[in-house]
Write a structure and sequence with these properties.
single chain, alpha+beta, Jelly Rolls, Arc Repressor Mutant, subunit A, 8 helices, about 35% helix, about 25% strand, repressor, transcription regulation, activator, transcription, Homeodomain-like_sf
């Protein structure tokens, strides 16, 4: 998909609004992309995994990455397209990132600047500052890596459709016909996470759309198999550094 290939500027801004349920079919850009969601929830899927961007967070998508985008709720997106530059030292795969108050202000300004702005004027200086600020954005653990191993990948996707905090390694070993030792080694080598870490992140990602829709924390916790809301809240805060209620409208 084109992302201003004929415009000779290192950073270009664009603002777009989407309706609840909108889906952008799999595509890729010839520039790096930074998404910032002012409202709503954005889910980005690739062959390597799933990333979920809550409001007031960002999503880094490297150039050439084939990705599908789904909107939950009314989504107001501010997007930057950037000429690839190894000096930024940004991730080589998608990454949810924290957006500082300064960066939010810069993004709001950037989408009002024409694509062919004067690089030596105020607009160029603002875009240069954005390029520097991007390099300081910390990552947020809102991703769920998917394994390449066919049988394990199918089992992960089954779990993602109905995540449960009570699923165990022994249960998965039985389903896959593997020893516990072989399974734990394979799981970490394929996902970069332990089974418990992956399960917790899957439950967290499953909870976010429901929180955004206004569902009660207690209902979500029990549906995900937690014994009580406190156990779910503790896990959620450990992963995201915030309470589930902070993600409700």
């Amino acid at each position: 998909m084109s992302s201003y290939p004929d415009v000779d500027r290192p950073v270009i801004g664009l603002g777009v609004n989407y309706a609840d349920g909108d889906v952008i079919a799999p595509h890729h850009h010839d520039r790096d992309q930074l998404l910032y969601g002012m409202t709503g929830l954005v889910i980005v899927s690739t062959s390597q995994g799933v990333w979920m961007m809550p409001p007031q967070r960002g999503m880094w998508i490297p150039a050439g990455t084939v990705h599908e985008v789904r909107m939950i709720g009314k989504v107001a997106v501010r997007t930057l397209y950037l000429s690839p530059d190894p000096a930024r030292n940004m991730p080589m795969q998608c990454q949810v990132v924290s957006i500082s108050p300064l960066m939010r202000s810069l993004l709001s300004e950037a989408v009002c600047i024409p694509a062919d702005y004067d690089p030596d004027g105020r607009d160029g200086a603002l875009m240069t500052l954005i390029d520097h600020e991007i390099r300081t954005m910390p990552g947020v653990p809102l991703s769920l890596p998917l394994p390449d191993h066919p049988a394990l990948s199918r089992r992960c996707q089954i779990f993602m459709r109905a995540p449960s905090a009570h699923d165990t390694i022994d249960h998965w070993c039985h389903d896959l016909g593997m020893s516990r030792r072989s399974f734990t080694r394979l799981f970490r080598s394929e996902t970069g996470l332990s089974f418990i870490e992956w399960r917790q992140q899957a439950c967290t990602l499953a909870a976010l759309p429901r929180l955004a829709a206004g569902d009660a924390v207690t209902t979500i916790a029990l549906d995900l198999g937690y014994d009580n809301p406190a156990a779910f809240t503790s896990m959620f805060k450990r992963i995201l550094g915030a309470s589930p209620r902070d993600y409700r409208p």
